[in-house]
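Justification of computing resources. Each target in the renewal requires a structure prediction run like the one illustrated here; the chain below, 347 residues long, is used simply to show the kind of job we budget for.
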Amino acid sequence: MIPLNIEVLMAFGVDSAAGDPPRKSHPVVIMGRAICILESALRSFCTSKKSERLMGGVLAAAVVCGSFFACKLVIALAACINPVAGTLVSLWLMSTTLAARDLKDAAYRVYAPLKQGNLPEARGNLQMIVGRDTGSLPYEEIVRAAVETVAENTSDGVIAPLFYGFIGGAPLAMAYKAVNTLDSMVGYKNDRYLDFGWASAKLDDLANYIPARISGALLVMASCLLGLDARRALLVIQTDAKLHPSPNSGVCEGAVAGALGVRLGGLNFYGGVPSFRQHMGKPLQPLESCHIRQAVALMYLSSALGVVIGTAISLGCGVNAVCEIGPVQVVAGLVSIWPICMFGGLS
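Resulting structure tokens:
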């Protein structure tokens, strides 16, 4: 097994070069199936709002713990076959928790047709990465949606899993990914999930609190290195981040809005229902397609800075340990993942 800091560094390189694996084999897809099946099973025990919150908490605990121990178990089984196999499996699993390459590709699938004036194609490609209605969005609103998505996912999709990877390797990064997936599937404030998804939403807020603020600092540093407005990026974080409905997403969106000198936020529609989000930043210049490319550059450079700084800190502190997996952890892993296996989540 290799040191955690080197594994994280290599995983970032693997993700940047190759991106995500095929959808069917992606751990997040397996988590998604497990969440759907477990939700269906647990719903039968929901007879009141209190029981909905309880069962929602059971779902969150089962999926997060199951993901953590399942990851450790797979690495342990591979290492039993061959130590090199264990290392490669751990490296691969760590890389699947990162989404820098896929985020860049998704953003550029909006940027390219937008630059060519092909708004229908840009709207169609945007719809694959955002939840808002995109069918009639004008040029500037398409840009805004793409920039906001890149900004928010700089933390959720890259820096947060890197943070947890440096602390606990692939298993902890995978547990974080489970938290993030739960929030995206059941963490909604609507009639169906207000109570059942409460635990998942709160857990996501908690898990992202520190990584989001690290991401904000890294985005300010990246802004400076790219010749963008780092001072305004910091100012908008301080003044506007709190206006965002999420306690964490506003940090990254504020940093990007300030760095680019644009205004994010505004009126969105979800299934035809209007939803206004407070503005972040000042419109010092109109939103243009080039801002998507700049947001991607900020995402990549801030992530790379996170890898370099995280590696340097771990080396300076002498933190070079690997995640040791013994028989107790293997047994605990089997116990933790049995509900998911029983309900077919891993089939």
